[in-house]
Write a structure and sequence with these properties.
Radius of gyration: 15 Å
Strand content: under 5%
Structural class: mainly alpha
Shape: elongated
Protein name: (apollo) hypothetical protein
Helix content: 55-70%
Distance between the termini: 27 Å
Number of strands: 0
Length: 105
């Protein structure tokens, strides 16, 4: 129940900025989908670099500035290469809620 309340709080803040307007569940879904897509893209980049010895031979989309900022919040290189021990709770500490909001700006 606490997580739902926190996502509702995030939704109020993000919705007040203009643009997309979602409820807490909608923003939680966006976050989960964005995180999954980013993890997949990072894995593709990592696999490409391993195949080519450090360079990128595949025609992969570049990471956007938003992707790079999200990757940093999610654990940096460990997130990008798929460290199975890394688990990030976006509400572990209250400041993460505000970091997430700032990243999305």
């Amino acid at each position: 129940m606490e997580i739902k309340r926190q996502w509702a709080s995030v939704a109020i803040t993000l919705n007040s900025l203009g643009g997309a307007n979602k409820d807490g569940q909608g923003w939680a879904k966006y976050w989960a989908e964005k995180k999954c897509a980013l993890k997949k893209l990072c894995a593709q980049h990592s696999n490409s670099m391993r195949r080519t010895g450090g360079g990128s031979a595949d025609d992969l989309p570049m990471l956007s500035d938003l992707d790079k900022r999200l990757m940093a919040v999610m654990g940096g290189q460990e997130f990008a290469v798929g460290d199975s021990q890394l688990a990030v709770d976006p509400f572990h500490h209250t400041p993460y809620k505000y970091i997430f909001i700032l990243i999305c700006l």
